[in-house]
Amino acid sequence: MKELALIAVPLFAAGAAFAWPKEQTRPWLLPAAGVIHTVFALWLLIDPPTLAANAWFGFDPVTRAVLPMVSLLFLVCSLYGVAYLRIRAERKNRLFVTALLVMLALLSLALQAQNLGLLWVAAEAATLMTVPLLHFNGTARAFEASWKYLLIGGTGIALSLLGSFCLGYASLQGGGSGDLTFAALAKQGAELSHPWLVAAWVLLLAGYGTKMGLAPMHTWKPDAYGEAPGMVGALLAGGMTTMAFVAILRVKQVVDAAGAGAMTERTLLVFGLFSMLVAA
Length: 280
Hints:
Elements: H1 2-19, H2 29-46, H3 61-87, H4 94-112, H5 116-134, H6 140-173, H7 182-188, H8 194-212, H9 221-227, H10 230-257, H11 261-279
Helix pairs in contact: 1-2, 1-4, 2-3, 3-4, 3-10, 4-5, 4-10, 5-6, 5-10, 6-8, 6-9, 7-10, 8-10
């Protein structure tokens, strides 16, 4: 399956990077994997496969809209990264290169995830994989930024997990079979337990909103963006933020199908306007 290649290629490259003996040539694995990943992403954009009704992951219209852009962003950043790591030759790059490639694989999985549990696992693993990238410079401020990102991101992890439990319980309370694919949850629609559905939306919005950097859960951003290498900051902004937005969008589709679209629109509007106000 071409969809699996988007995950397998960077994982294989990550294994090769970890075992690669030479510091000077290891960074070239980044653009090599980036080119192959981009080719597969564009291939799937042009010729998308049919998504099975009960599929846990796949290339749906939402994925088609964002994953090729994330792939192109990684390719551009990887080309920059080769020159950057040559300049920073005093720093060991084994963990950095490996973590970047694993992060690409996890982002590819999260953006293709059609199952609530699989989305959470991929998104949180990608969050944890970002920590060594933030600490690459090895300074005290980079260490502080890494820990702040981990602690605040950990709060988001906990909230999104609790929200996932609430959404699953809303399905069970409504007579669902326990199928956590977004298609099955949306099909249940109004049968979902409304109180648990509201709790799930609030918790999932707060959890994934933390990764997206919505105010007031944005406090990790100034330190992380300020201390991370430029390519890592670009991937955080264009990759992790996009992944979190897609997660919120998928949950919104389920809540809207249950007839609570007005609630999701109002809460997103409030968070969006407040984030703009804080940024101003």
